[in-house]
Amino acid sequence: MPDEQTPLLAVVRVEQRRPRYQHSTVRRFCTIVLSGVLVVVLICLLFPAAFLPVADGPKSSYLPWANPFPHQAWPGGDGMTYEELQTILLQTPNEVEARKSSEYYTAGPHLAGKNLSQALWTKEKWEDYGVKSSIVSYDVYLNYPLDHRLALLEVDSGRTGVDLATPRHKIRYECSLEEDVLDQDQTTALSDRIPTFHGYSASGNVTAPYVYVNFGTYHDFEDLLAANVSLAGSIAIAKYGHVFRGLKVKRAQELGMVGMVMYTDPQEDGEMTVANGYQAYPEGPARNPSSVQRGTAQYISVLPGDPTTPGIPSKPGSPRVDPHKSIPSIPSLPISYRDALPLLKALNGYGPNASHFNKYWQGGGLTHEGVYYNIGPSPDSLVLNLMSAQEYITTPVWNVIGVINGSIPDEAIILGNHRDAWIAGGAGDPNSGSAAFNEVIRAFSVAMQAGWKPLRTLVFASWDGEEYGLLGSTEWVEEYLPWLSAGSVAYLNVDVGSVGPKLEAAASPLLTKAILEAAGLVPSPNQTVQGQTVLDTWDKRIRTMGSGSDFTAFQDFAGIPSLDLGFKGAPNSPVYHYHSNYDSFHWMDKFGDNQWHYHITIAKLWALIAMDLCETPVLSLNTTNYALALSSYLEGVKEKAKRSTISEDSAFSFKFLDHATSELQAAATKFDTYTADLTRRLSKPVPWWQWWKTVKLLYEVRKANTKYKLWERQFLYPGGLDDRPWFKHVVFAPGRWTGYSGATYPGLGESFEDGNVTNAVRWGEIIVERLEAARKLLEE
User: What is the model's pTM?
Assistant: First the structure.
């Protein structure tokens, strides 16, 4: 036996080799396969990620069995091709159906807050089309007319003694304040037709001398002050036109005037006048002498929406403020030019004549009736008595909201038209748009029935209360602002859809591309060469956004790119009786659009723009157009600066604005070039074994679309414009003394108009900050 002294010897026992496992080949194969699967999974998880920007979707979405796409056919259409959808939208709208809708809407009065039956009918019609719809109401502050009077009075100079302290007047002319009932036009004879009045007019009864103030623009009043015309304590008589009616009243009130009367002068009617030999409506196309333009006297460039709830929705229990910062405190009335004639003729020979003023005072259309257009004041023997009695109440208005849900929940296209009117008719304003709107929705309904589902959500809105001051749309935007800010792509508005053959458009420059592309696909109703499209027969002028319709809250408060479209009258078109009883179904059927072709054309154009924005994988927007427009807007402000009282060696410099604008233009061009290439890559088929490339494209598209979607929001300034903070957009706003027409870079431009260099410097800094925010968004 070995012990601790014995050398260590290694003893190895060798045994016979064991037989091999009989399934070893199978086990080896399984090991290789399972290891290979593991490697493939690792490649699927890690390898595609190396090609992607950081944070573009969860990595699990790149697995072969993952499905991150909006729908299975993406980037194609869901249920039908883009071309098939386009065909449906072009072929479905028809004149017969549009005429039926118009006939319903114009059959009776539908003043704001008094048209619930029409709201219910609209909701039911949309639901019959298959569009889920609801009614959203707001409690708004507005007025309804109780009584009115306007009379030209002669002071009784034959009275003596103590009676001189309370002079008696004789009636020289009592204005009818009524529009003629026409046998040919049944809506003019309705027993419940709406009286002539101004929305948001103050109640009052004033007797005073009066002064002719031309169009009642800010500059007209400045001309009168320069001519030493006495205004305080007088009543103004103004022509409609050039600026928003409420701003005429605002300036008159600021100058101490006690009331205002407005009429439509035939000079606004171009060639189509009685003086030129045309018969008046209903026999001919000229203006009926008794027609009266109703309308709101709200200061729409100061605050749209409910004047008692600025910035918040008018719901039960909402805190309310004094409304008189945005509505008048003096009474006003609209009258016909027939009623205006005795008032104007009574001024003949008194005060300076309009011919003594600049070119903007020339061209009055009643000279053939013996009107000299003297300014006044009226002689001591004549005064006007103006009485306006209004009932102010808080009452519901009703929006109808329809929705077709898309596959992408946070990208929505909103289409809107208002339903309320000042009169029983409203065949042009707004119900030519309403009739076209129903055809747009019906066309999308036909597509849904054929199996189509939209890529992005479509929202349809029939607004109430637009005429008083964009009430329904403004309150809705204020209520749903968080959702709109996160998910809205664009707002597409049609108010007056068809009253003539001339297409007019106003839009954010982001939407120029979509408008032009759609116009190139819709056949024109007035072709001079067979096959011409709307684009071929249109001057392609697209105005900047002002106010006066329901796009205002979207564009100027929420920063949502918006447009407004409609066919308006040409110089040789029949006169459109705006806000008059003669804006009737009969007028439309005989003079306005007697074949109803333009109703259908605006419906097709509207639908195709919505389709383009809804269905293209990469949003059909363009930042380069916007950046180029910003450059031209800046040049316009420079011209204002040259005309201002601010000296060239002041503290203000355009250097930083020029630099920021140039940088933004370069970034926008680069971004649009990238998205164009992205669209091109989407059109190329991807082999099935490179599935992850399609996922990569999806997230590139989502990122690009988010930048497009949020671009307009970068130009919002939370503090708002000076003295009108509700308007948040630094690029667009209604002109403070125009209302309808738009101002660009309003904060800066108004600083130059006021000669305020300190404020100009402040606004220059604000604009540079917003331009840089827009550039950084594109470069992220």
Answer: 0.92
